Amino acid sequence: MRTDAVFLLKAKLAVRGETQVSLRGGSMRPLLTDGDSARVVSVSSCEVGRIYVFADRNGGGLIAHRAVKVEDGEVHLKGDHTGSFEVVASSDLVGEVVSFRASNADCWHSVAVNSLEAKATALLSRMMGDSFSGDEQRFRRGIYRRLLGAALDATNELKRKYLLSH
Question: Is pLDDT larger for residue 154 or for residue 131?
């Protein structure tokens, strides 16, 4: 399964330059949720805050997670809604998510790239991956969710104002 999924995605990217994939799971909530679609392009560079697609080492297909650290040819990736990290070689990244469409929507939304939102999300996500005991972990997770929610609300408000002014 893993080899086939990686091969097919790489082949589509080589021929078309981009492709659309259907997402499953909730590790990137609230930005990306189960049933959403994502546009994936070839990886041009590795940067903190961007969302990359890579092979699941446990044979489960492909995973899309956010880069929280890039260092010495390795990329530390983490789902926005998970507590664990994956570390992969930058050469093992299969693609980059550049936009998404919610399962109940008709329009595509750009994924924040090189923005304060993306970098703040990566930093907060990385903070949540540290090992803490139960109460402290729940406290930090609550803060993380509130900050992420506020960042997304602010971004949506800016987008709304921009669309109204143009």
Answer: 154
State the pTM of this model: 0.71
- CB distance 36 to 103 below 8 Å: yes
pLDDT in tens, 3-52: 688 888 989 999 998 999 999 998 988 788 899 999 999 998 898 889 99
Q: State which residues form the domain around 80.
A: 2-165
Nearest residue to 25 via CA among 112, 103, 123, 77: 103
Contacts of 5 (CB under 8 A, 6+ apart): 55, 61, 62
Q: Pairing state of beta strands 37-41 and 18-22? A: antiparallel
Domain count of the chain? 1
Q: Terminus-to-terminus CA distance in the chain, angstroms?
A: 46
CA 124, distance to chain mean position in Å, is 13
CATH number at residue 46: 2.10.109.10
